[in-house]
Every structure is written in C-alpha cells, then in structure tokens.
Known about the structure:
It comes from Hyaloscypha bicolor E. 35% of the residues lie in helices and 17% in strands. It is an alpha/beta fold. The strands form 2 sheets. It has a 6-stranded parallel sheet with strand order 2-1-3-4-8-9, with helices on both faces. A 3-stranded antiparallel sheet has the order 5-6-7, with no helix packed on it. The chain has one domain (6-248): Rossmann fold (3-Layer(aba) Sandwich).
Amino acid sequence: MASKPDFIIVPGAWHSPESFKPTSDLLEKAGYTIHGVTHASFGASPPLQNFDPDVQVIRDVVNKVLSSGKDVVMVYHSYGSVPGSEALVEYMKDLETGNKKDGWGKIQRLVFCCSFILPEGGSLMSRLQFKDLPWFIVNGDEILPDTPGEIFYNDLSASAAAPYIAALKPHSYKTFSSQPSVAPWKVIPSTYIVCENDLAIPLPAQEGMLEMAHQMAPTSFDVIERCSASHSPFISQPEWLSEKLIKAAGGGG
C-alpha cells in the first residue's frame, strides 16, 4: 500500500498555522503528517515590500518534503494560494519538461480553501479591482482586519473566536499587489472548498473565480466541495474539512 501523502498547510493573511489546529489534529490522528507554513509576512517588522519572502518560506518547506520522497497535498487558505502558487515555479517547470528529480515525491493535489484563484500575472488587489475592502485597516505598509470576529469567524461564538482573534498579527500590505508567474491549478489536480457564509471572500466572488478558472482551463478544479462555514472552516467545521482533505489525499470520504 502506498504511503499517505503529507499535508502542507499555507494559511491566509494575518494567520499562523496554529489556527488550523482543530483540523490538523484530526488529520494527524488519521495518520497524516502536517507541515504548517508560517509566512515571513506574519507580523513582519518592517513589513515586506512584496511576497518574495513568503514564497521562499513555502518553497523551502515544499522542497524539503518532496526531497524526502513523500508525496504532498497543498492546502491553501485565502491569501495563501498567492505565494503558494509562486512557490511551485520550479515544480511546474519540471512538470513541463518531464524532469522529475530522482527520489522526489510529487504534488498530488492542491486544495483551495475559500482561497484566491489567480491567473498568471494576476494579484489579490486585481481581484479586488484595486480597491481596499471596507474592513481593511491600512497603516502605512501594514494591514489589519477590522471586525475579524464577523469577517473570519462569524459561525463561532464570541468566546470561541476570542483566542483566534488575539493570535492575529499585522500583514504586509504590499504583498497583496504581488503577481504569481504561474497558475498551477491549471495542470495539478485541484479541489476548491466553497464556504457559503464567508464574509472575507463572499460566495459570489468564490463562484466567480471558479467560473474564470473553468473558462481558462476546463479540466481545472475537478472537485468542488461546499459547506455552510465562514472564512475559517478549519476551526468551525474541522470534522467536515478533515474528511474532505483526506478525500483529497486519496483516502476516501
């Protein structure tokens, strides 16, 4: 029996991998190894001027796991898909040329959890039509979320959301203008987790990105899963999400 792939979790802006703990714990209990990425932009001082340091952190984790011979499922949340896509530039080149490194694993699937789908040369700000959202608090090159309880955790009680809100750190605003040069979702099998009560990336925006993706690459996002969660199903619906992630890893469900 083939060994289980490892999960690499790339969180969104303002968040660390610790926010995924309710889901990560269930995956580990099911026998999976989890690698959480802490963005260089997470509380960076001074703030980053682009997403390059985030890209490098993710690339280092990906290369370390693949070079160990393990297969990988990438899990992107929100902003995490932006540097997460660019981190796969070399992997994409190897796919195109057929130059798979001896002894290396492969990326089995990408999972976009209420995450941004960008074409080559796109940016998070371009998806927002270059307008700050009403809940953005921009202070120079730093950005924080206003009302995070409502925007990120509207399906949690105030007491349950409180520790997650306290753990948020400023994000580097200029990373939102960085542009991935590759769109790995076009060629690597991908799953999209639609969160119907997400107020950070509302349902019409998620569905609009999926429509764009299917127009550009008809075979992309061959699996679409839907739930009633807010922007953070890894906290509010960990059992459901872990089941879908295990399915994405080829474990059924």
